[in-house]
Amino acid sequence: MTAALQIEQLTVSYGGIQAVRGISLEVARGEIVTLIGANGAGKSSTLRGITRLVRAGGMVRVFGEDVSAYETDRVAGLGVALVPEGRGVFTGLTVRENLELGAYLKRNGLAAKLDRVVKQFPRLGERLTQDAGTLSGGEQQMLAIGRALMAEPRIILLDEPSLGLSPKLVQEIFAAIRAIASQGMTILLVEQNTRLALETAQRAYVLATGEIALSGTSTELKNDERIRAAYLGGSVE
Predict the structure, then answer these.
(1) Taking the complete model, does pTM exceed 0.90, yes or no?
(2) Which of 22, 119, 148, 192 is most buried, most CB within 10 Å of its CB?
(3) DSSP state, 167?
(4) SS3 category, 44
(5) Within the chain, which residues score under 70 in pLDDT?
């Protein structure tokens, strides 16, 4: 079966600085794969390269289709949705308006899509008429994920969904991510909480200075002495 996402020799540069140095990875349909690594390792740049938000070299295939020369909107039209670091909600628009913007490429069945998102995130249903800027950080993260779901994606790219959230809200957001995955969604997750990322994903790639340093199943990496020392405080539960 064709993989949902294939990357071969992806490179991303900003001026003279190469942030991603020819990485290759694959995400199967319905799989959660995580990218872990220190700040500046190239994780977010990888997601931007996949979605063509930045100029990138190498090859990216989405369900077998080479999108390397596509613009961002065309990649989105193939079913790739990015939930950016920092959430990127429109604070001056209502929750409903933010969600409806997520469906800009697929306006049909808007009410049904909205209903599905509200069932996934009931708190958003209680706040549909509020400005997004009045929401808590956790609620804004729910809104960002809900907005992506409004596009009826086949692949979701999640960039640091736990950033700035309390431990309780982090667990709530990741419970939602697992629920979405259980419905068959393909997810590529960038997350600095390494323990949580490895508990959530089936497989992982470790990025270091723009290159893949390690890869394997989450269980393998959780028990790898190098990962334990660098990211898990030297022990694994």
Answers:
(1) yes
(2) 148
(3) H
(4) helix
(5) 1, 233-237
Q: Considering only CA atoms, which of 167, 227, 161 is closest in space to residue 189? A: 161
Six-digit token string for 73:
């909107």
Which residue type, as a one-letter code, is found at position 72? T
Distant-in-sequence, close-in-space partners of 125: CB < 8 Å, separation ≥ 6: 118
3-class SS of residue 187: strand
Tell me how far apart the alpha carbons of residues 183 and 113 are, in angstroms, rounded to a whole number.
15
Tokens for 217, please give them.
């199943």
Chain position carrying tokens 């920092």:
86
Q: How many angstroms separate the CA atoms of 127 and 125, rounded? A: 5
First and final C-alpha spacing in the chain: 35
Give Cα 184 to chain centroid, integer Å: 15
Residue closest to 58 by CA, chosen among 45, 68, 44 = 68
Apex 86 CA angle, 118 and 43, nearest 5: 110
Given a contact cutoff of 8 angstroms between Cβ atoms, the answer to whether 46 and 57 are in contact is: no
Task: Calculate the CA 15 to chain-centre distance.
Answer: 25
* Model pLDDT, residue 90: 95
User: Which region holds residue 15: left if phi is over 0, alpha if psi is between -120 and 50, else beta?
Assistant: left
